[in-house]
Amino acid sequence: MFASFEKSNISCMSIVLPQKEINIYDEMEYYGNSIKKIDRMRKIVGFHKRKVADSNTTASDLAIVAAECLIRDNNINRANIDCLINVTQEADYKSPSSAYYVHHKLGLSKKCIATDINQGCAGWVFGLYIAFGMIEGGASRNVLLLCADTPSILKNINDRAQAPLFGDGGVATFIEQGSRKSYFNIDTISDNFEDLILPFSGTRFLSKDKSLIESLYQHSYKQENGESIPFDIGTSYMDSMGVFNFAIDIIPKNIESLLKYAKKQVDSIDYLCLHQANKQIVKEIGALCGFDDSKVPYYAFEHFGNNTMCSIPTTIATLPIESKKDTLLCCGFGNGLVCASSILDMSDSPPPISLLL
Question: What is the pLDDT, as a whole number, of residue 213?
Fold first, then answer.
């Protein structure tokens, strides 16, 4: 699905990351107490540090803090906010939508519509697509887009394929009427939806058809020492190789198609801001798309972890202050499986960005 918009601008963003930090060197027992093994994983995958929330903090809590910072730092009149889009994977309650809780806590107008969007790593770009479309169509004058996630609580600490990857975070983005042109390309690869899934949740788990659930329940994590650790009913499941193949096979094609649709060349893009899946995937996609390594940052992953839908804004916030950032190609990809890419015009007063720890 291709789309372009020319009446919407990102005016400002605020990114909130938890203070608690886990360093991969603090988890040596999972690597046979071998610094050499950890150094190897750092070099290949990029494992280093990740920011994680405490057990009492929900995704909505992070979204609210990010929104309050955005409203305060940019003098936004909350009474004039038309629409609240809350992108989350981990709702506070199954019903009602977490957007109503967030709407209440932020003290937004009763005329401000509020809704959740269930999206993962592609959530920020997907949310922009919806927000830009609403403004373009005249349904809203402005949109407060919130993205927040706490994936760390859904990972088995013994699963070394997932636990060291994921960090938590919250992002608030304010979108207003404007005149910058943006381009989007969204591909839905639903054939392999089960490659990245929280299986023991929702009504499917309660239904009589448990074939997928039972097959995943038999899965066990193979550790480097040969020990098998059974799948934990409360955690998410990821087919690492399936997700890697999806990223390498599908994402470059999506990005190349977007460039062609927008009639732009690789050298016209200042930075390729990819979802921070891990260092290896980010570098591989950048190379396959013909970008110089210096234009494909992965600092955010190495220092904050893969904070899913927050990783692209976190990456933008950590770009060098003195560098040119007029044109960004942002690409989020993940559970669904879905790939959402956008070329954003950040020229003419680039959006103020706050990165708060």
Answer: 58
Name the token pair of 188. Answer: 């839905």
- Give the whole-angstrom CA distance, residue 125 versus residue 174: 13
pTM value > 0.85 = yes
H or E element that contains 121: none
Q: Are strands 327-334 and 271-274 parallel, antiparallel or unpaired?
A: parallel
pLDDT at site 10: 96
Mutual angle of helices 98-106 and 59-73, in 10-degree steps: 40
Element (H, E) at 312: helix 311-317
The third-level CATH classification (topology) of the domain covering 2-179 is: Peroxisomal Thiolase; Chain A, domain 1 (3.40.47)
pLDDT digits (tens, 9 = 90+) for 112-152: 999 999 999 999 999 999 999 999 999 999 999 999 999 88
Domain chopping of the chain, boundaries: 2-179, 199-230
Half-sphere exposure of 8 (CA within 13 A, CB side): 29
Q: Where are the beta strands (DSSP E) in 63-163?
A: 83-88, 113-118, 142-149
Question: Per DSSP, which regions of 151-235 are E strands?
Answer: 169-177, 182-188, 196-197, 220-222, 228-230
Tabulate helix, strand, coil % of the chain (nearest 5): 40, 25, 35
Give me the pLDDT at residue 294, please.
96
Q: Residue 54: name the closest of 147, 153, 120 by CA.
A: 153
> Which residues of the chain fall short of a pLDDT of 70?
156, 204-234
- Which DSSP symbol is given to 166? B
